[in-house]
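This section describes the prediction task in plain terms. A model, or a person checking by hand, is given the sequence of a single protein chain and must write out its three-dimensional structure as a string of tokens. No templates, partner chains or ligands are provided. The sample shown here is typical of the held-out split.
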Amino acid sequence: MANFLVSIVKHTDTYGALKKSIELCNGLKDFKKNDKILIKPNLVSWDFDLPFPPYGVVTTSAVMFALVQILYEEGYSRVTIGEASLGVSGSMAKNIFKVLGYEKLREKFGVKLVDFNEDKFVAVDVGGFKLSIAQKALEADKIINVPVLKTHNQCKVSLGIKNLKGCLNRTSKKQCHGRDEELEHMFPHIAEKLPVALTIIDGIFALAKGPGATGKAVRKDLLVASRNILACDMVGAALIGYNASEVEHLKYFAQRSRQVINLADIEVLGESIEKHAEYLESDWAWTEDNSGPAGFKKRGIKGIAIRKYDSSLCTACSKLYNPMLILLSSAFKGEPFPGIEVLTGKRQKASPGFEKTILFGKCACMQNKDNPNIKKAVFIKGCPPDLNEFQRLLHEEGIECNYDQYVSYRHYIYDRYEDKDGFDMGLFKII
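The expected answer:
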């Protein structure tokens, strides 16, 4: 990997910093003027109903605008931005494009905007199984991958390799979160099938306890770029405190691509890793006996065992996991719950000794439909389940949740970010 360059540039002026980061790593070296270029940002989610802090969650519009402008000035005119964002009720990429101002990129530079979910997918053999990858991604001559600098509670970091999971259709995304398959041995196959020519990690913000808005963002002001996706991810991981040898999907990808995981083999230009490295937690604390979040124990919540999520919990249910916890917490009035176990995902099995077992989501329901350990099952069906139905079914069981507490929590996580600390929503707008 000694031949690969990775640039780390301090972000001040977005255009200037991005141009420098691309130049330092010779990022456009292999690009041809007539190439079909696909830009893949990280637009994993948005919330159009409740306050949503995008810091460290989605790629900033400032970086996207600067990148498109640089490509335009260099004479690249066949540029497409594509993403397959999924909300609880379906595709939302077009709406996210709109809220982030991408339509102005189309108006000013002629960029095409593609919601992969509304386009075609191709089933691709990735070695013993198939994943359905966006046709536009497969047909591109070059892909510029623009993830954000964030942690992930299921795989420690979510950088360039993980960002490509957003090129899959919904079924294949769920397939990556299999009962028998390991998530970190699934999505790295996507990178092997796509012409990723440049990876740019948007590190204006970095996110602890990611990948969603319930994590905690910090202002980092870094841009990381490389023509080698693994080298870029290794440096990105190091900047948030993770050795690539401790991140399973990076090790797996390195093994399959016959590359060595050793930072000493990478030439880092610009800023140093050591100067900016800062450990960010990737996961949420759980009790030692796996009875629930540490926060529940701190509040004295008893009588309920919420088994910690694993990698079989797919993205759609993951987005509902935090609301589920807040709603269950809101039902605690000082008295212990009446012996409840809560299960999610495709692997968790009911334990004996509980009066009621809440099965959250279609997969947990199927996994435990005939489990003899269950005295009374509360089936929260759906893929993903509906929160209103969740509250209704719990009400029937005498468990009274208060949705207003979840709304208050969402306002809290938004209001904790202030302009004076560098949390500028203007970075997510294109004027």
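For orientation: The chain has two domains: 5-282, 294-412.
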